[in-house]
## 1
Amino acid sequence: MNSKSIAFIGSGNMATSLIGGLVADGYNPKQIIASDPDSEKRADLAARFGILTAEDNLAAIAQADVVVLAVKPQVLEQICLSLAQSIRQTQPLVISIAAGIRESDMQHWLGGNVALVRTMPNTPAMLQAGATVLHAGKGVSESQRDLAESILRAVGLTRWVNDEKLMDIATALSGSGPAYFFLVMEAMETAAIENGLTPETARLLTIQTALGAARMAIESSDGPATLRQKVTSPGGTTERALEILEQGDLRALFAKALAGARKRSEELSEILGKQ
């Protein structure tokens, strides 16, 4: 993989995170180039990671084996149209990290028959603790799948889905998911403060508890239901709290939340594809 040239179109937070993760993993920075019209951003990337930079997108992808489209969804059509001729000529692997844009729309903008992998990373990727869902289009070879996975794995866990439609529920789960946990943490922190803890103590206890629970879930072979049962003593405080949460139909509420987010993801894909 280290011999492949990777061009990033756009140098926002997610692109910077991927570049940082790749370099930290030992990827040759001279095999990475990022394009951005902002000279200060280019200078910062070159200084931080030792990569190559370019002001012009076409110059950046001229020799690239992989092109990572790391721009906002609203401008992806314009970017794809401007790169289409060059991509048809050089036939690189194209990886999109633009949320909500379907492969059919990108293929149309790029002129078709492009080896395209659509991905959905989430914001913890900026800390190399992300979760990324990937879907490979028909023209993607096994070696290109491996290459795409290696690049995205630089910022965390990766999982493939065989049906592109599943990207919408993946977006609802892992893409939007960090906000759900932040809301739960916010609610716990507020409740603790209302019951007498100082804001600082409530915040630290909440964060550390969330971190500890996540580590237990990662490092244990047991599923969440078994872990919950193991930490719940009959007749104890945890059991009482869980009974109240169950009475509030928490499971149904999360089911409705994810269904709503999935539907909105589908709606946004329609809207963005028509722009």
Note: The chain has a mean pLDDT of 96.
## 2
Amino acid sequence: MLIYMIISYFRKKSIELNVLDSIGKFLFFVLILDFTLEGLDQIQRIYEAEESFEIIKLLVSSKLYLTLFVSQGLIGTIIPLITLAFLQFYKYQIKLKKTIYFIIGIFVLIGVYSMRWNVVIGGQLFSKSFSGFTSFKVGLIGLDGTLMAVFWILLPFAILAFLLWLLPPWKMIPEED
């Protein structure tokens, strides 16, 4: 949805509201599926309650609270679900609706980033012997640094830009003189 909106903006083409509504419906159903699967995963973890459960419970209630519940849960799932449901039933002004879709797309990306943070960093925060927590500090340079993370975030967009330049998916209409 975001890529469609950004590419349309740079191409100076109008953003079709029916396309955004269709993408919004698909995103709504995918978020419901994601929310359901995450809930089932949590129920299964609670039911099994292995030896790692207490460490994970401490980790979730302290070090990963903001990224798990606020960023991933609230901003990345709950707010987009509620907003997309309202957008399907209520008619807003077209410009406002497009802006809301753009913001919801950013919220979902924040949720996806937070989920990846929770999986990768959360897995590194507790020791494998379950004897306590380790510390993780994000550096600026190096293989685990912020600059490398920014590179890996921007690389897919660079590849997409190259592929759009090489194989444009839209019909090129020759301009008349």
Note: The chain is about 70% helix and 0% strand.
